[in-house]
Amino acid sequence: MKKVALDARDRAIIDELLKDSRASQQNLGKRAGITGPAARERVRRLEDEGIIEAFTIDVSAKSLGYALEAIVRIEPLPGKLHIVERALQETPEVVQCDTVTGDDCFIARMVLRDIQDLNRLLDPLHDKARTNTSIVKGNPVRPRRPPFLNEQ
């Protein structure tokens, strides 16, 4: 993959969009020290180069009635990898899932209404995989951008 050089204006635009993905082009330009149209062109270039992949929103699981989150490490039993993967994809309470190296194949983040909800979500996997669950207590580091290479 080609490394893309970012200048201070690109970095300022990215940081501003991370704070508010609905920021106006005028505000982006002001933050970066350029005009609104120039900021719009930079955003378009950052999208074209694959640096900006999407504009998203954060949805509060708590506001939707989910009191808990769980991190579940999942090790499919022999021959069950694709069945487990499909089950995770089809479970709406799985809000994120990564494939990983090591003994586990998947690390899934699930939202739960209460602790009893965990049994309902994990029981269908027990004949297909071994699981290890941790309940999330807090988020001391929220999702953030990786450091720009010249920041280190």
UniProtKB/TrEMBL annotation:
One of its GO terms (cellular component) is cytosol. Residues 133-152 are annotated as: Disordered. Keywords: DNA-binding, Transcription, Transcription regulation. GO terms for biological process: response to amino acid. The keyword Membrane does not apply. Gene3D superfamilies: 3.30.70.920, Winged helix-like DNA-binding domain superfamily/Winged helix DNA-binding domain (1.10.10.10). Transmembrane segments: none annotated. Residues 6-67 form the HTH asnC-type domain. One of its GO terms (molecular function) is sequence-specific DNA binding. It comes from the Bacteria. This is AsnC family transcriptional regulator. The lineage of its organism: Bacteria, Pseudomonadati, Pseudomonadota, Alphaproteobacteria, Hyphomicrobiales.
